[in-house]
Structures are given as C-alpha cells and as structure tokens.
Amino acid sequence: MIMLLTGLLSAAVLAGGVLSLAALGEVMAERTGVTDLGVEGLMSMGAATAILTVMFVPNPWVGFLAAMAAGSAGGLLFAFATVIMRANQVLCGLAVTFLGLGFSAAIGHSVAGIPAPVSFAAVKLPLLSDIPVIGPAFFSQNLPVYLIYIILPLGFHVLLFHTRHGLNLRAVGENPAAADAAGISVTAIRFWYVVLGAALAGGAGAYLSLAVIPNWSEGMVAGRGWIAVALVIFAGYRPLNASLAGLIFGLISAVGFLGQARDWPIAAPVLNMSPYLGTLGFIILPVMLWPRLRRLFAAPASLGMPYYREER
C-alpha cells in the first residue's frame, strides 16, 4: 500500500509539472492584461523541438532550452500581433494554437514514436528523499521538478508582490492608463512578459517529451495547454497557487492511470476525461460554495483589453 501511494504521488508530481510550468507562464502574461490562448500550440512546438534537439545533441537541458526558444518565437509573434498591433487576443491565441500544432506535426513527423535518446534523470536530495512515502515521491525527482514547484513559484511570487517592478507589472494589468501616466512602459512590460509566458509554455512541452513521456507523437499534449489556461483562473492569478493547482490536477491524472492499470469498474474514456472534469469542477464549485472567492480571485481589470495610449 505504501509503495502504491508513493508511486501515485510520484506520477502526480511528474504529470502536474507540465501543467504547473505552463500555468506559471500564463500567470505572468495575464497579470499584465494579456490572455494567451496559444499555450496548447506552444507546448506542442516545445515538445517536438526538444525531441529533435536531443536527437542531435544528447543533453536534455539543451533540448529544454531549445524548446523555450521555440516557445519564445511563437510568443514574439503573438506579442507583436496583440501588444504592438493591438489585434484581438482571443483570435490571435487560437491562431498560435493551430500554427503550433501544425508546425510541430510537420517538424516532428520524422521522429514520431522514436524514444528520446536522453531524458531528465532523477536526483535524490539527501535526508529528504529518505522520508517515508513523500520522500521518494517529492525529493527523488529530476531537477526540473524543483525548478517548477519551488524556485519559479517562489521567485515569481516575490517578484509580483514584494518588489516595485511587480507593483508596476500588476498596475499594467489593472489600469494601464494610470500606469502609463506614472511613467511605466505598458507596451514593454506586456510584450516581454507575454514572451516569457510563451517560453515557459515551450519548456512545459519539453518537460512532457523529455521527462513524462520520453518520445514525440502528434497530439501528445492532449489538451494540457487548455487545462493550464484554466488553472490560472482556478489559482486566482497567483504563482504559488498555480504550482499547487498543477500538482492537484497531476494527482487526478495519476488516479485515472491507476484506475486503468488496476481495471477499476469505470469505463476508460471516463477515466481519461477525469482531468477535464476536474478542471470544470475546481473552477465552478469553489465559487459556488464560497462566493467571496469571486472577488479574491478576480482577474486583472484590463485582462484581454488592448491599450490605446491616445484614449488615455
């Protein structure tokens, strides 16, 4: 029983890492007032790019960085269209999704189904990894896990809520006209944080194809990008909450896989749907049970709205 629980938690940490990393990037972008619905496509680009890269350079970190670069390229395109040209964010996000899915299918066709020659190896933390149950699950993981669940969430939290730059960033998302009047560059902050979010989405794709499912196949992202976008809402646009939410949904996915492996009397399609059903439940139920959460976890006031300086 202990081994089963440890294995379940370990699988949850791995599966949730993909969602957490993509959600963290989306939190930073949406905090500036820009909604990027292209996460699914950016993750797919990152996954394919990472596999192709490690085929030539057998180093998972090189593949991870290459995937982030691919995500950044998609982010630059999206940021130019939405922040500079002020195009509709929803339509541009959908365009990036379809572009990313098509691009990844094209470049990844030659390596589809081929196992990754290298992947992220587990690193045990002394003493912590010896803790029963949670030690092997949380402290015997690959290095990106610690980056995703500890370093990035804490770093982004401090940046957003304990620095002057973070205050400026949040002001851009809440009231860009007032931020502009105070001398804050709305365009620059929005542009570069959208690119950062896209880079992390590409990194999430690399983590998927180099740690969770070490190969590439078309459609392997399987809606995780959309779940990551929903997690941002569930997390109240807060980095620490986004990381924890990814872990929760990773646990839901792991339970579904366990059910199929142990032949639970539940139809496999229902178990496969569990992460998506969980997405709906975790967004709707808390607000229904605790209406105050609606205000506490409210979106930035200018989310999805282009900023026109001449209308200030």
Task: Give structural notes.
The chain is mainly alpha-helical and 312 residues long. It has a single domain (2-123, 144-306), classed as ABC transporter involved in vitamin B12 uptake, BtuC, CATH 1.10.3470. The protein has 13 helices and no strands. Helix 3 (60-84) packs antiparallel against helix 9 (186-212), helix 6 (143-161) packs across helix 7 and helix 11 packs antiparallel against helix 12. It starts with a helix and ends in a 16-residue tail after the last helix. The mean pLDDT is 88.
User: Approximately what portion of the residues adopt beta-strand conformation?
Assistant: under 5%
Helix content: over 70%
Order of helices and strands: HHHHHHHHHHHHH
Classify the secondary structure makeup into a structural class: mainly alpha
Q: Please count the beta strands (DSSP E, at least 2 residues each).
A: 0
CATH fold node name: ABC transporter involved in vitamin B12 uptake, BtuC
Sheet having the most strands: none
CATH class: Mainly Alpha
The global form is globular
Write the layout of secondary structure elements.
Elements: H1 2-31, H2 39-56, H3 60-84, H4 89-108, H5 134-138, H6 143-161, H7 164-174, H8 176-181, H9 186-212, H10 224-234, H11 239-261, H12 268-289, H13 292-296
Helix pairs in contact: 1-6, 1-9, 1-10, 1-11, 2-3, 2-4, 2-9, 2-10, 3-4, 3-9, 6-7, 6-11, 10-11, 10-12, 11-12
Quick rundown:
The protein is mostly helical and 312 residues long.
List keywords for this structure.
mainly alpha, 312 residues, ABC transporter involved in vitamin B12 uptake, BtuC, 71% helix
